[in-house]
Amino acid sequence: MNGDSFICICIFNMARSTQTLSRPRSVTDKRSAILKAATKVFAQKGFFNSKVADIAEKAKIADGTVYLYFKSKDEILHSIFDRAMEAFISEGKTQLADLKDPIEKLRRIAELHHSRLGSDRNLAVVFQVELRGSTKFMREFSAAGFADYLNIIRKTIEEGQKAKIFRKDIKPIIAAKIFYGALDELVTNWILSKKRYPLAPMADEVLKIFLKGISAK
Amino acid sequence: MNGDSFICICIFNMARSTQTLSRPRSVTDKRSAILKAATKVFAQKGFFNSKVADIAEKAKIADGTVYLYFKSKDEILHSIFDRAMEAFISEGKTQLADLKDPIEKLRRIAELHHSRLGSDRNLAVVFQVELRGSTKFMREFSAAGFADYLNIIRKTIEEGQKAKIFRKDIKPIIAAKIFYGALDELVTNWILSKKRYPLAPMADEVLKIFLKGISAK
Amino acid sequence: MNGDSFICICIFNMARSTQTLSRPRSVTDKRSAILKAATKVFAQKGFFNSKVADIAEKAKIADGTVYLYFKSKDEILHSIFDRAMEAFISEGKTQLADLKDPIEKLRRIAELHHSRLGSDRNLAVVFQVELRGSTKFMREFSAAGFADYLNIIRKTIEEGQKAKIFRKDIKPIIAAKIFYGALDELVTNWILSKKRYPLAPMADEVLKIFLKGISAK
Amino acid sequence: MNGDSFICICIFNMARSTQTLSRPRSVTDKRSAILKAATKVFAQKGFFNSKVADIAEKAKIADGTVYLYFKSKDEILHSIFDRAMEAFISEGKTQLADLKDPIEKLRRIAELHHSRLGSDRNLAVVFQVELRGSTKFMREFSAAGFADYLNIIRKTIEEGQKAKIFRKDIKPIIAAKIFYGALDELVTNWILSKKRYPLAPMADEVLKIFLKGISAK
DNA sequence: AATGAATGAGCATTCATTCAT
DNA sequence: TATGAATGAATGCTCATTCAT
Q1: Which of A19, B48, B110, D201 would bridge B203 by S-S if both were Cys, CB 3.0 to 4.6 A apart?
Q2: Domain boundaries, chain D
Q3: Chain B residues with CB inside 8 Å of A184's CB?
Q4: What pLDDT score was predicted for residue D147?
């Protein structure tokens, strides 16, 4: 299943890049500008309270132009997710490729999770808050990249079990969700907090508990 | 004039209480019916896509009647949260009152968390999905009952640390968030899953990992 | 202030007494209370911005009770006009009855016009502003008591013409409108002015100009 | 104050015309079309009973388009008044500029007043009836152009007094209101009358009486 | 007569989307 | 491609009126 997903993503990336490369740079730039503007606007006002006109203004284009790049307001939200998730998973795989130790892998995942979202607050807000504003989106979200992400964690846990580093009495898929949930909650708290603090160090706290929690010793 | 008013008010109050006593059921029922209907509608369509008319229809009342019990559509969402959170925390405190062992307390919290949400899917959807659709609400949410909830967990962890059952090198407030995040993620997954499975057993999985993770041994 | 109102009501009741006597006192009182409350509310907020509930509250009765005395919100406005106009014309006729000199009659009319409206600001506001908010009402208004009022003035002018006191080259009906318009405008100005000054003395100014204007000399 | 207003109006007109000229004709036309349609609709149904949709329909545009030109239904009413009053006063000043004799000036004012309103019944209805439907508007109305108008009349009367043509025992500002009130009442009567007759000749009747009334002789 | 909870028609305004230029 | 004026469907909320008690 993991293999499948991997292939899937690869194909997807290829398809994407083909598309992207064949377009003049300005096209990509404008598309990017819209996504960036939308991320900011959605983060500030929320998806439902954001007007397409706000996005267009922030992207310094006319309202109608948005529709040359996206079919609808909904699609913009999707694209934000797609683009970020794609980059995220792709970078995750790259970073995990040279690691063997499951513990190190989980550490890398946690660090990546928090450093990524911690470095782009707007994106984080959209991920933690806006993407969850509708069951409709959540299902698609869940079905798409998110499942891939969970699978990477799950496989790592399974590897650890095979290597007798991790307990065998835990279910890898559930443990993966627990791991993800813990990381996720800290991001959400970070976003909603009035205090501004670095997110990255939080990853350690999760690891401290989770790794001991699933340790075979 | 003062005397008159006084009598007036007395009569008025009496009238009120008579009325209220003879009617409490219908008033309460109607309010409840609206909340129940709204929970269902919000769970199905999402808050922003739900019309007040939908709620009224499901509650079998006229549109305008909704506004005799709630000031706005927003207030309905708030009330759903308030009522559920209040009941949740109140029951939590009751159930924890007779427990001494921090481990048992955390177990009880986890079980309660999952059994409560697991027994009312609509409410769970609203909690997991709709309440997070806006930073605005999330902040209020966070500021209100949610903080109480986290505090209960945090204190329990602190107790465990004092009793030398739990590790001292973890920060209770962060550990509390991790615990909550883990439980929460399983609820979200349960909601979004196409498969229908009981939520309650998931609590054990969280406990298995978390308790070992924070154990002093 | 309480005393004033009381006298006011007494006068009013006397005028109405034919109708009124056949009804139990409480009925009349409640009807009056509603009209008084409505006059105040309409004067403050304007007819269209006034709620029936506001009127009921000010009259210290239940919303529904209003409809035991008036068929609709519109009818309340009508009744305010009818009652006041009736009282006004009736008093006018009484006061003019013992006068022979057309000049004295016009003087009496002008004084009455300004003293009446000048002594009840709320009523004046309703008369000058609210009653004119709809052509629909204006036509009925025009058709009803207002025509009577104009006729009294017109006849007086005609008398003066016959007595060779007033010019014959003016059309009585138009002169009557001019006289009325002049008086009316001063009332409107008085109402809208931020300054508070007595209205009654204004009548003299109108008379000074108008009487000379129509004088035969 | 009169001088100031004059300059003010001039500047305003210049600014207006610059703007207007730089816009494509269609923009101006659409704005005008809305105002014209609104005047008609308000005249027929009254402001509060008119729907924005009615105006849009009559102007042959979509409902939403109204809001590209006006911020609210209220603003439409204001604009009708502003535009008409501006044109009215501006034309009045022009026409009075070459006249010296105060009597001639008053004659011109009266004629202009009646010929203007007499030539656009819908506008007249809005002016006489709708604009007076709320104290709120009346105050603004009174504060704005209306005061200018009264001042023009007042100054003319003062000139006449200085020239010893008019009586010195009348207060110019009150006389101005009387003159205005007389003209105004005839307009209102004309509007409400079921008979259709020319309004303009009425001006003479007012002049006949008023000029004799304030004459020094 | 009196109440006031319930009704439901009614409407200003917004904003995603389209399309003529 | 890009524009932005125009569209018109969509909806939360109000409030005059009714009616069961």
Answers
A1: B110
A2: 2-214
A3: 181, 185
A4: 86
